[in-house]
Amino acid sequence: MTAVTGGRPEEDQRALFGQSVAVFASLTGPRHLVETANQAFVDAFGGRSRQAGVAFAEFSPELADQGFIEVLDRVHRTGEPFTGRDVRVVLATAPFAGEAFFDVTCEPRRDAGGAVTGIHLIGVETTQIKRAQQLMAEHRALLEQIARQAPLSEVLDGMARSIENLAPREVLVSVLLADPDGRHLRHGAAPSLPDFYNEAIDGIATGDGVGSCGTAAYRREPVIVTDITTHEFWTDFRDLAGQAGLAACWSTPILARDGSLLGTFAMYHRTPSVPQESDLALARVFAGTAALAIERHHSEQARLAAEERARAAHDALAEAVRAEQRLRAEAEQRAAAAAALTAQVHAAAAAQATVPHPERCQLGGAAGCTAPAEIKLADSWGDAAWGCPAHVEEAIITVRSVFIASEELGGLAAYVNR
């Protein structure tokens, strides 16, 4: 495992983009023998042989297969200079290994008689500029996604693909998201990793020695495993990584502004690999972008949850008000019914002053009741009335001050045994 220290933004920029390098070589004859060359040219194009006097095709075999010899042949044959902008080449030697871009000028060399005797090759590396332009464009697109509150999965997936496109060598990117308690990591994005691998590590615990990501999350610092097949952190996951064709994993924790864990950002490789400073700088830059996206997502989720709670509380209050209104309306209805029955009792009492025992129920209201009057009711004011068992029961339930006072028929016993 390699220890990694955090870099300042300007240091990360230098690591990512470096400085432009000028290359120069003087070539002789139709075979383009390398007569003289500066160190940058030798470092970039030295290939298998770095000796002067060697034909360019032998000096840099990989360029010979990329159309470069044809360009030199044409300049030597026609005497016309060649200028190319952002010429793409694939190099095999460090520190330029991988894809590189150069602005190149090939000027014919002539003898005293004007005959072409060789070529001056001058170039300026533009790889850094191209990568900076790509990085700025990709980063701007991600920030725009975050600003318009695109789904977090969409932002993280786009970020992973951007890094895979920007990296000078093949890399497979994974983002895991921390549970609220920080004890487990959940799948966030990994567009190039196989589904079975993503499913297997979904929910992995954070802990010292739990793979690269679990350890990075636990330690809150980057963890670089250059060879999965031999590292102790991968003992429990070695077979899984082998099935997925993974041989190295560099993991960086994604931290919030307050230092709390948001997740991890991992870069996988298919061969054992030691990161360059540019790789680490790229990880730091995008870990910061991922933190911004995740924090924005958490804030949005918290806002939506608060709005949902407020909406639920409002709905509950509205329902309580409606229930209170219903109860009040029912109480008013009961009060009105009680008042009506009380009025009936009073009216019946007044009527019975001349008729001691009516034949028909006096409690039927406006509709009347033809049932026999069987039970006498009275209230605390001394009023009384006769009614049928059904209307008497309704009066007893509705009007609290009413009681059975039927002496002739046994009073309460007549009601109970009706």
From TrEMBL:
This is GAF domain-containing protein. It comes from the Bacteria. Gene3D superfamilies: 3.30.450.40, PAS domain (3.30.450.20). Residues 151-304 form the GAF domain. The lineage of its organism: Bacteria, Bacillati, Actinomycetota, Actinomycetes, Micromonosporales.
